[in-house]
Amino acid sequence: MADLSVRIGALTLRNPFMSASGCFGYGVEYADAIDLASLGAVVVKGLFLEPREGHAPPRIVETPAGMINAIGLQGIGVRRFVAEKMPELRRLGATVIVNVCGTTIDEYCEVSRVLADTEGVAAIELNISCPNIKEGGIQFGCSLAGTHDVVSAVRRVTTLPLFPKLTPNVTDVASFARAAEEAGADAVSLVNTFLAMAIDVETRTPMLSNVMGGLSGPAIRPIAVRMVWECRQAVKLPIIGIGGITSARDALEFFIAGATAVQVGTANFVDPFIWAGLTAGVDAYLDRHGLPRVADLVGQLQIPRKAHV
Amino acid sequence: MIRGAAYTVGLMPVDVLAEVVANTPLAPDYNVLTLAAPAIAKHAAPGQFVMIRTAAGLDPLLRRPFSIFEHVRDADGRLVGISILNKRAGAGTARLYAARPGDRLAVLGPLGRPFVPVHPPAEAWMVAGGVGLAPFASVASALADLGTSMTLFYGARSARDLYYESLFTGLGTRLVLTTEDGSRGEPGRVTGPLARELAARPADRPLTIYACGPTPMMRAVARLGDTAGCPVYVSLEPVMGCGMGGCYSCVVPIRHDDAGGTHLVRSCVDGPVFAAATLDWDQLGSGH
Ligand SMILES: Cc1cc2nc3c(=O)[nH]c(=O)nc-3n(C[C@H](O)[C@H](O)[C@H](O)COP(=O)(O)O)c2cc1C
Predict the structure, then answer these.
(1) pLDDT tens-digit series, residues A240-295
(2) Yes or no, beta carbons of A60 and B239 under 8 Å apart
(3) Ligand 1: distance of its center to the CA of A102 in Å?
(4) DSSP readout, A143-185?
(5) Residue ranges of chain A whose pLDDT lies below 70
(6) Which chain B positions have a beta carbon within 8 Å of A22's beta carbon?
(7) Largest CB tally within 10 Å, which of A53, A268, A293, A299?
(8) Does the pLDDT at position B21 exceed 50?
(9) How far is CA A78 from CA A16, A155, A257, in A?
């Protein structure tokens, strides 16, 4: 049995597998089926200060090896989350990371303050990358100055580990990782979904009520791996790799590219019991390669020197 | 069929790799798949559903929701599996239409809130439109166990789209059939005879209505039940991503106050069975 624990800043996780935000409800939905404490961390659905209704259905459409979603961040608001969901998550021994949303910098700060005062919140993932809401979110995540401003403002209101979640819908994701690092982030999560669209050609109407949405699932994995690799070379921060992971093999790609931990989103919809197989698969790989710790694998991409012709 | 079973709802769902025991074609686009899944059958209550992977690979990626149709027993009466009623509509359901005995499918369940069968002296009327028949085999079976008198109003496009009549008559169900083309039963929609019988029935006899089918049909049934003063329960079938409450894609509007305020709730965990009076039928649109 290899050591699967990983450190992300001050936070130590028992293994590198977390649920991806928005793909695991508030965690409690899965408590009857799996042991939430067996996950590295439970990253819960994005939360604003107030409850939100989200977009009208249809909210998802399936695409080859993936799906496009425009949920629109429906949620119960941070205060109800703290009052109604946190006691259960604490009781179950889950390591809880909260995905924080905002339409203004003040809102990001206010939500983070509420969480900083809440027992059992292990870290904050700053959602500056949701493609599905009009104001806030991605508007910060698509501007270097915006990214810097949100991260440094939240940094001032909490000592909780802070993980900005980056959007892939930019030309150079590494420069955004650098902006986050300079602003005091403890790690970066990447990637959120790719802005996408699907059309019903018979009716010539969009498949989603919101017209556009975010693409996730195996279809995006190679691009996400590339972005983790690019960021690995740009920053010293730990990277939490996300995008299309369905197996231990997929996760290993992210570790080798430079991710310290990973999140699994869409694949959990297909297989809510995916977690045990992920840890077992990585453990078997480490044994086979004579590596005592998963941390030893991070960023170990070997690029063969070009052969002379 | 479940006989005198006490349902335990809310138990943890299981994911089983179920063997396809039989694939019974019903019509060019409909079939019944019998699946060896005793662990699911044992805990499945009427109106609950399963999520089925239609391909082992990545395309289609997501599971598809199906009402549990029958509880299947072997010759000795042991629960051995479930069946589902499938309509070939897209890539996933086309695969299930073509499934062969011996194939294995990942089946997750049982999931969702069930229909609660009423006891005598209350009477039960089931209203099914097309493939909306799916939840009613297990509802009828549970009602038969309770000795509740029941009627099935069953409408389809034409005679060849009406299935499993003998299953229901065998359980003592009175059948009222309608077809849109008039090839069998009364011509027109199933809500025609329903409205007539509601108007004619003695007002002092308690009645509960269960409905499943196209949204316009369920909306009409909800209205008729409301006018007649009897509770209506519907089973909704929105597009679902996960079936476990994780993704928030299968939301439906419920009224949360008397001032016309509505709120979107997940059909997978708060439904798929809802009291019709709690739903906002004006907002429940074509997306469902
Ligand atoms: C239905 C759905 C809802 C999501 N909601 C959120 C959210 O609330 N906050 C967030 O940061 N990311 C959200 N995401 C993005 C995921 O967390 C993840 O970054 C993305 O899906 C890629 O990972 P995957 O391919 O493993 O799903 C959502 C994704 C999906 C599919």
Answers:
(1) 999 999 999 999 999 999 999 999 999 999 999 999 999 999 999 999 999 999 99
(2) yes
(3) 16
(4) -HHHHHHHHHHHHHH--S-EEEEPPS-SS-HHHHHHHHHHTT-
(5) 131-138, 307-309
(6) 247-248
(7) A268
(8) yes
(9) 26, 18, 34
- Domains of chain B from N-terminus onward: 2-111 (2.40.30.10), 123-235 (3.40.50.80)
- ipTM (interface pTM): 0.93
Find out whether B214 and B191 touch, Cβ atoms under 8 Å: no
pLDDT of residue A309: 60
What's the count of helices (H) and strands (E) in chain A, helices before strands?
10, 16
Phi-psi domain of A154 (left: phi exceeds 0; alpha: psi -120 through 50; beta: other): alpha
pLDDT for the residue A156: 97
Instruction: Pick A60's closest partner by Cβ from B58, B241, B264.
Output: B241
Question: How close A282 gets to chain B, by Cα (Å)?
Answer: 21
What pLDDT shows up at residue B239?
Answer: 92
Model confidence band, residue B3 (pLDDT cutoffs 50, 70, 90): very low
- The beta-carbon neighbor of B245 closest among A29, A64, A67 is A29
Distance between CA atoms of B57 and B38, rounded to whole angstroms?
25
Do residues A190 and A20 make contact, with C-beta atoms less than 8 angstroms apart?
A: no
Domain ranges, ordered by start, for chain A: 6-297
| Chain B residues within 8 A of A60 when measuring between CB atoms | 239, 241, 247, 249
From chain A, pick out residues whose CB is under 8 angstroms from the CB of B247. 22-23, 25, 60, 69, 71, 269
Residues with CB under 6 A from ligand 1: A 20-23, 45-46, 69, 71, 73, 99, 127, 130, 165, 192-193, 216-217, 220, 242-245, 264-267; B 247
| Interval between CA A61 and ligand 1 midpoint (Å) | 14
pLDDT tens digits, one per residue of B255-282: 987 777 889 999 999 999 999 999 999 9
For residues B109 and B44, what is the distance between their CA atoms, to the nearest angstrom?
8
Residue-wise pLDDT tens digits, B29-88? 899 999 999 999 999 999 999 999 998 889 999 999 999 999 999 999 999 999 999 999
| Pairing between β-strand A60-63 and β-strand A66-69 as defined by DSSP bridges | antiparallel
Q: Which fold has domain A6-297?
A: TIM Barrel (3.20.20)
